[in-house]
Amino acid sequence: MGMNRDMMARLQQMQERAMKAQQELYEKAVEGTAGGGAVTITVTGALKVQSLKIAPEVVDPEDVEMLEDLVTAALNEALQQVQALQMQSVSGLAGQFGIGLQ
User: Residue 81 contacts by C-beta under 8 Å, 6 or more apart in sequence?
Assistant: First the structure.
């Protein structure tokens, strides 16, 4: 059973929109913070750490574990935000093509 031209054109259009949405997502960046802004991590939609900022006052050689916890918390917050962006992108594409996501 062959596909008609209209179906092929729609599939190609879907693929192009998906690629564009993915590129837009990759260009976005989100910030995760911890310790009231003592640690800030910026992560792109491509899951690349763009920057990491640590306030000097939280660098305590006697309490490295606290700094590790702050970095971990900030990174996890940023990754959750990227995940939310991904879901928005996927649901937006699904809506354009009449596909319901739950």
Answer: 30, 31, 32, 43
